[in-house]
Design a protein that fits this description.
Helices cover 57% and strands 13% of the residues. The protein is α+β, with helices and mostly antiparallel strands. It folds into three domains: 79 residues, P-loop containing nucleotide triphosphate hydrolases (Rossmann fold); 31 residues, no CATH class; 131 residues, no CATH class. The chain has a two-stranded parallel sheet with strand order 1-2. A hairpin with a 2-residue loop joins β3 and β4. α5 runs antiparallel to α6, α5 runs parallel beside α7 and α6 packs antiparallel against α7. About 7% of the residues have low confidence. Its main location: membrane. InterPro entries: ABC2_TM, ABCG_dom, ABCG_transporters, P-loop_NTPase. Keywords: Membrane, Transmembrane, Transmembrane helix, Transport.
Length: 253
């Protein structure tokens, strides 16, 4: 029989993820597998998923049995389990009361995060654009590396090779397919490097963007617009140099 031993799998996780992890382990037990799991201070929802308990205190066994037996055992020890408890449910706070309470307590729903932003979209856009600009100028070595890579290693070499390949291409009707191939190759050579650059930039800034967006600091649209503008200022002149180099070689035939 397959056995799974898991040592505190919910450590460092929130209540939602912790419950999902334990539910996966619970599913494994329904398939005939034995799962042994150590857990520290679980929530009430996670606690109810366990079939058998082994409670320890100061390195000694305090109880071993089912959840129902645990309630009776601690009752005999003078430790009563309260019927009224505060259940934390992710984004809402739900207060459950005893049915015998004639007055009753209403359910309170308190959202943790607001749905709006403190700053306007224009303010967000300007601030992110300025931050991206400051980040760029404070790292001149990175800017130089990008300039050398995209202007000389990528665009200039590509433009020179394309100019040689399509040199003296001609302007006759029979050369239409060659001209079309030159245009397609030129579009690819000028489009792919900026795309790769944009993807790598977004991947590097993704954790920061997710965290600040989750904190309602700014929206996604102002971030992408400001990032695109900063990138255009870096690579626009490179593509212009590429087109100029190809045009000079092809036309001078």
């Amino acid at each position: 029989m397959f056995e799974c031993i898991s040592d505190e799998p919910t450590t460092g996780l929130d209540a939602f993820m912790a419950k999902n992890i334990v539910q996966v382990l619970k599913t494994m037990t329904s398939e005939g597998r034995t799962v042994i799991c150590t857990i520290h201070q679980p929530s009430s929802q996670v606690f109810e998923l366990f079939d058998s308990l082994l409670l320890m205190a100061d390195g000694r066994v305090a109880f071993k049995g089912s959840i129902g037996d645990a309630k009776n055992f601690f009752s005999t020890q003078g430790l009563q389990i309260c019927d009224n408890y505060l259940e934390l449910s992710y984004s809402d706070i739900t207060i459950n009361t005893n049915e015998n309470n004639t007055r009753g307590t209403p359910t309170i729903n308190i959202p943790i995060l607001g749905t709006g932003y403190k700053a306007t979209y224009w303010r967000q856009f300007v601030t992110i654009l300025w931050r991206s600009y400051i980040t760029l100028i404070r790292n001149p070595q990175l800017l130089l590396d990008r300039f050398v890579m995209y202007l000389w290693l990528c665009h200039q070499i590509t433009a020179f090779c394309m100019g040689i390949i399509f040199y003296n291409i001609g302007h006759a009707y029979s050369d239409a397919s060659n001209i079309m191939g030159a245009l397609i190759s030129l579009i690819q050579s000028t489009s792919f490097p900026p795309i790769y650059y944009a993807l790598t930039t977004l991947v590097d800034e993704q954790p920061l963007m997710f965290r600040e967006h989750h904190n309602r600091t700014y929206a996604v649209l102002p971030y992408f617009l400001s990032t695109i503008i900063i990138q255009l200022t870096e690579i626009n002149d490179h593509r212009g140099t590429n087109l100029s180099c190809v045009a000079m070689i092809v036309e001078n035939n």
